[in-house]
User: What shape does this take?
Amino acid sequence: MSQWEKLLARIRRHPKTVTFDELDILLQRAGFVRRQPRSGSSHYVYIKGNRILTVPKHSPYVKAVYVKQALKVLDEEGPES
Assistant: This one.
């Protein structure tokens, strides 16, 4: 099992304890391009094709609703697409 698969499995098991950096790694590895927030904003935008995800950077953990949304998009695209 690769590190990416281990990270994905851990995120699926515990969506409430995912840091922004872990979610960032997962989305970029899946092919999403991260766009930096505008001045004063904490919202990062991830783009891949016609898919757009907005994830606010919270500390220490990203809210579970955003993690579940990202997992849903990854599941729809298939494994490591």
Q: What stands out?
A: Residues 30 and 74 are 8 Å apart (CA to CA). The mean pLDDT is 89. The domain at 3-77 is CATH 3.30.920.30 (Metal Transport, Frataxin; Chain A).
